[in-house]
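On clarity, I found the account of how folds are encoded harder to follow than it need be. Since the whole study asks how a given chain folds, the encoding of that fold should be made plain. For illustration, here is how one protein appears when written out as sequence plus structure tokens:
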Amino acid sequence: MSASGCDLARLRGYRSPQLSALVFFALAIGTYVIHGLLQDTDNQLRRPHRVGKRLLPPWLTGLFMGSLIVGEVAGALVLGTGAMLGIWNG
């Protein structure tokens, strides 16, 4: 343990938030490609949620957006913590 009570080596090995950001980025790009191919890019968040002519379950977009928020905040916290520990520990 370091003086700040946090093991920096353990934080450096923690990759879940970075993987989460990468997965959500890939899913977002894939969604944009699908909507572009289907020519339905008017408003992807308008209800009812559609992919082409198919309706998506009402909970799916909310779940995806909520998960995206959690993943982005967690990733930012890990990056911010690492930056602060790097500054404080020299």
User: Anything to note?
Assistant: The mean pLDDT is 80. The chain is about 65% helix and 5% strand. Residues 8-84 form one domain. The first helix runs from residue 8 to 12.
